[in-house]
Amino acid sequence: MQALSIQQLRKQYKNGFEAVRGIDLTVEPGDFFALLGPNGAGKSTTIGIICGLINKTSGAVQVFGHDIDRAPDAAKRQLGLVPQEFNFNVFEPIRDVVINQAGYYGIGRVKAKARTEHYLRQLGLWDKRGASAQELSGGMKRRLMIARALVHEPQVLILDEPTAGVDIEIRRAMWTFLQTINKEAGITIILTTHYLEEAESLCNNVAIINQGKIVEQGRVSELLGRASAETFVLDVSTPITGALTIPDYRVSVLSDQQLEIEVARGQGLNALFESLSAANVQVDSLRNKTNRLEEFFIRLVK
Amino acid sequence: MQTIVPPAINSLLYMVIFGTLIGSQIADMEGFRYIEYIVPGIIMMSVITNSYGNVVASFYSTKFQRNVEELLVSPVHNLFILAGYVAGGVLRGFAVGCLVAVVSLLFTELTIHSLWQTFSIMLLTSILFSLGGFINAVYAKSFDDISIIPNFVLTPLTYLGGIFYSIRLLPEFWQGVSLLNPVLYMINGFRQGVLGESDISLGVAYAVICAFIGLFGFWAMKLLNQGVGLKD
B232 vs A79: CB contact, 8 Å cut-off? Predict the structure, then answer.
């Protein structure tokens, strides 16, 4: 049974804007899945429909076999949502935010308190348990929403841009936490993000959505393999004066000690280094100009 | 404290100004001293405005802060969501109503003619106006929208619902018009419970209140089930 199955999902808003235009999508249990797309592509609308926050126009959605129309309660029990925008009562102590959410799932107060402590500790918020949510930093608020989404121990966790506006240290800590619950607890994770490096590092499978339609879907490794070219930035030790031509490669001189070279799929790096050596260019270091998935993504949605 | 005491102070002022200062110059009303006659109406006015105000403000603020989404993503049935908000409105209405009743003891003896009748009319009325507040909050798109109905509909209906006068004092035509005001039935039903005296039949009062509860309850559930103002 699939963790999430979507068939021909459509959403047209009252103003006539068609945000989702016939999406078909499946996510396997235990997967770490990325839903990528530019702003306004339909990612948040799709997530809203799955979680019961937005009415769909047509189509069907099942969560672990539970149809969201025919068995909404069973479907909702499987889902935990970390939305893009903060949506808790900012005046409430954060411990109560999490405990109350457990109550909405019928979890008794004693168990709810224990789980709240567990998740607040895991996410580094236990020391702030008595503080109102408005006193937290942006990163803490994001972590609070993760704790709240996990308190009823869902099988599918949906995170809509969970690391937006979060500093790199907290972002890395959140990655580690998400990887842990994915691997150890087997929670299926569906993630939307604008940080494609995040998707490439964390996710096994990806769907790219653009203008309300899935334009690409598959394993991250497969999609990266399909990228037609990669662009590298090279730092060189011998200053380059004038134009530099390397046969079969597109080369741009960024400065006298920096080059940008586009390597087409199948060309390989050995041949490039041989050509550079032949041209008396000594390479100190090399790096991708952009993240590989990002490059693929940009080519796809451009 | 800040939600229960201010309405009691308002009611205290009504009792001082209309009941004691002006009321001392007014003859008995339907066989009761004027202050005795208006106290049940003032209590009901507090119950109505506070039940309504509690629900409209609390549900709109959860929409505004978006924490209503916590409920929408969870498997809580819409009926329980509605019941929770209505229970909050009823409790607030009762808390304020009881405090106003206690304050009224400073001005008059409050002997209850029928405790069951007084309690049931107060309960049903607070349920009705809590449902009204909920419907208002569902449709509201701004804070202005949650004050329009209380200011332009609820307040006139309440004041014209016989708090300060018996409709028998009105010309026949205006008596007929007054009978179209549903608040009249609640205030008079409650007055009947407290004083044993009313302008209208008690059975009609119960029927009108229950009919409106049924209508508003159905309306509120339909809005919730369709996700009006919440899911689009």
Answer: no
User: What predicted TM-score, i.e. pTM, was given to this entire model?
Assistant: 0.85
Structural domain contains residue B69: yes
- Residue B231 belongs to some domain of the structure: no
Q: Which of B189, B221, B191 is CA-nearest to residue B205? A: B189
Number of domains within chain B: 1
Q: Assess whether A202 and A274 both reside in one domain.
A: no
Chain A positions touching B226 (Cβ under 8 A) are 55
**Full domain range(s) for residue A176:** 4-224
Write down the residue that tokens 């709109």 correspond to: B60
What is the Cβ-side half-sphere exposure of residue A201, based on CA atoms within 13 angstroms? 13
- Which domain does B203 fall in, by range? 5-226
Overall domain count for chain A: 2
Residue of chain B with shortest Cα separation from A83: B69
Which chain A residue's Cα is nearest to B68? A87
Residue B34 near residue B19, CB atoms below 8 Å: yes
pLDDT higher than threshold 90 for residue A226: no
Residues A73 and A155 reside in one and the same domain: yes
pLDDT attached to residue A87: 94
Interface of B with A (CB under 8 A): 62, 65-67, 69-77, 226-227, 231-232
Min Cα–Cα distance to chain A from B80, Å: 10
Determine whether the interchain pair B74/A76 forms a contact, defined as Cβ–Cβ distance below 8 Å: yes
Cα gap A100→B74, rounded to integer Å: 11
Q: Is the pLDDT of residue B214 over 90?
A: yes
